[in-house]
Amino acid sequence: MSNKSSMSKRHTGSQRGFTLVETMVAMAIMAIGLLGAAALMSQMSVSSNDSRYMSVEALLASEKLEDLNHFQPSDPNILVTAGASVGDLVTDMRATVGTTPVDYFDTVQISSGAGAMVETTSATNAAGVLTYTTTTHSPDGSVAVNTGTVQPAPTPDMLSFKRHWIIEKDVPEANVLRITVRVDLIDGTRPQAATFQSSMVRPGPQP
């Protein structure tokens, strides 16, 4: 009787120990799974943000290309007076064309507040003064534009982008200009921030 009782207790203890091990293994597997899910969600969030940044950059590139396309071929803003090109896609480039100072870069800040989309562009005007042009798109469809020399106060949701462009003469053929715009997100916490680049070809000065 004593032996049976002892064996029964050992058997019961063995069952309890096995159940505890199973529980610990299950908890470990669950923890690994949760960590994996968290990492996946974090990666999805990063990918989602990158897609949003790319969409904004594509819009800003298209906006600048359209702006440069409106100038007459002889306008200082797109005129290539010496060499094969002006501007750069990485470095901030300035030039004086005739008597007009021209920047081949600008900074765009975008924020949203009270349902309105606010876009501020900074650039040097014809007098060589740094100016800020703020365009506010309201929910009712109205658009307000203000220009001044004082930088608007930043907001917590503000995103800053840098645009650079290069204008190439007689590319890909004679008497045309190829304009390429590159847009980069300015964010010191994201060294691999999204970049977008787009080009167009338009008529240049005719001989």
Describe how the helices and strands are arranged.
Blueprint: H1 2-69, E1 85-87, E2 94-97, E3 100-103, E4 105-113, E5 116-124, E6 130-137, E7 143-148, E8 159-169, E9 176-186, E10 195-203
Antiparallel strand pairs: 1-8, 2-3, 4-5, 4-8, 5-6, 6-7, 8-9, 9-10
The average pLDDT is 80
Strand content: 35-45%
| Broad shape | elongated
CA gyration radius, whole angstroms:
30 Å
Q: Structural class of the secondary structure composition?
A: alpha+beta
Specify the biggest β-sheet: 8 strands, antiparallel
State the separation between the terminal residues, measured CA to CA.
116 Å
Counted up, domains total 1
N-to-C order of helices and strands: HEEEEEEEEEE
**Helix coverage percent of residues?**
25-40%
Number of strands: 10
Uncertain runs with pLDDT below 50, 5 residues or more?
A: 4-9, 42-46
- Can you count the helices? 1
Short description:
With 207 residues, the chain is an alpha+beta fold. Helices cover 33% and strands 36% of the residues.
Structural description of this entry:
With 207 residues, this protein is of the alpha+beta class. The chain has one helix and ten strands. The chain has one helix spanning 2-69, and strands at 85-87, 94-97, 100-103, 105-113, 116-124, 130-137, 143-148, 159-169, 176-186, 195-203. The strands form two sheets. Strands 1, 4, 5, 6, 7, 8, 9 and 10 form an eight-stranded antiparallel sheet that branches. It has a two-stranded antiparallel sheet with strand order 2-3. The protein is elongated, with a radius of gyration of 30 Å. Mean pLDDT is 80; it is low at 4-9 and 42-46.
